[in-house]
Specification:
- The protein is α+β, with helices and mostly antiparallel strands.
- Helix 5 runs antiparallel to helix 6, helix 8 packs antiparallel against helix 10 and helix 9 runs antiparallel to helix 11.
- The longest helix has 37 residues.
């Protein structure tokens, strides 16, 4: 069986590769991170012009009407460039939540603006997907929300939110509504906007079929994060190989030393199967939704483990230079670390996979 990208998907990938090479250089990422913005508006505008924000939004609402596999292809290139723009929540999880769980009025009110990039929407489901910290969690009743949601992805300066409550139902909340306080959270990854939301009788619109839609958007988010990690890991490998070929010691490139060859070869061997896992997980959303949760769990847990190994090994290949801001490796290192933790650690996700297969209660 030949499982690869179609001509259209290759065109989408190449379009993003070319654009990101031009607009998301390391110096731009460094400046954005140093400013504490976690979002470059110029990059965001150019990527929205390519259709990034509306990839999963139907054509009736101004989007491209594409699937999760196309989103995974884009996520891989964003991870490769550690691009400081919202994507996993704003362009994947939130559009899916509204498309699958919203009524026609909600779709008309939210999706067209999201598709053109005029509205950015964060997603607050960490307490459900990754476990709740003390005093965290959201309760719903009589059309309002109360409580705290931590680690809201793409949440800082968002125009609205998809919020999961303690019962597993989903709600739409507008940032301009009353009773909502947004508190920015600093994480090691300065290319992502993550915040805390505090609700106090905050008006909210419930989505229908909340629990089924909730699991779907978590699974889609996990696949997207795995794709992002794959791109980041491949870029760290590329930089390690390039540095080893250029760096000389004892009068010869360190790439000629057997130990360094083995380190680079092992990184390449570990990364090679990851793309198949990511593509398979993305493929399941449209082709076999019942198998999506297990495929997403396999993809995220495995790519997270490989990502940590690659991040450590690529830094070791660089020696002391790997820890300097001049090389910039830490941007990819930190991106991989946050991806590993968000929407469930490998240990938690593997436990879910075991339950899905009947290996654990």
């Amino acid at each position: 069986m030949d499982f690869g990208l179609s001509e259209e998907q290759i065109l989408i990938r190449d379009s993003f590769i070319g654009t990101l090479a031009r607009i998301s250089e390391l110096d731009t990422v460094r400046q954005t991170a140093a400013a504490g913005a976690a979002l470059d508006e110029n990059i965001w505008a150019e990527l929205c012009a390519l259709g990034m924000a509306g990839l999963l939004i139907g054509e009736d609402f101004g989007g491209a009407g594409l699937g999760l596999l196309e989103a995974a292809v884009v996520a891989e290139e964003l991870g490769r460039r550690v691009t400081p723009v919202p994507f996993t929540a704003s362009a994947v999880m939130a559009p899916l939540a509204i498309s699958l769980g919203g009524d026609e009025d909600q779709k008309r009110d939210w999706l067209p603006a999201m598709a053109e990039g005029a509205m950015r929407v964060g997603v607050a489901v960490s307490e459900i997907a990754a476990g709740a910290r003390e005093d965290a969690g959201v309760t719903a009743g009589n059309g309002v929300l109360s409580g705290r949601a931590l680690f809201v992805l793409d949440g800082a300066d968002a125009d609205g939110y998809v919020v999961g409550d303690s019962e597993g139902d989903l709600h739409l909340v507008r940032a301009a509504g009353g009773g909502l306080e947004q508190v920015g959270l600093k994480t090691i990854d300065r290319t992502r906007s993550i915040c805390e939301l505090r609700f106090e009788n905050t008006p909210a619109e419930p989505l229908r079929q909340g629990k089924d839609v909730l699991q779907t958007i978590i699974d889609a988010g996990r696949v997207t994060l795995a794709a992002d990690s794959l791109g980041a890991g491949e870029e760290m490998l590329r930089q390690a190989v390039a540095y080893a070929a250029d760096r000389k010691q004892f009068g010869r490139p360190i790439a000629s030393f057997q130990a360094v060859k083995h380190m680079c070869a092992e990184m390449a061997a570990e990364l090679q199967p990851c793309r198949a896992l990511v593509w398979h997980g993305a493929y399941m959303l449209e082709q076999d939704p019942a198998a999506l949760s297990l495929a997403a769990a396999f993809a995220k847990s495995h790519v997270d483990e490989v990502g940590r190994f690659v991040a450590r090994t690529a830094t070791e290949v660089h020696g002391g230079m790997g820890f300097t801001d001049l090389m910039g490796l830490h941007y990819w290192f930190k991106r991989l670390g946050v991806n590993r933790a968000y929407l469930g650690s490998p240990e938690r996700v593997r436990a879910e996979a075991a339950r899905l297969q009947g290996f654990a209660a």
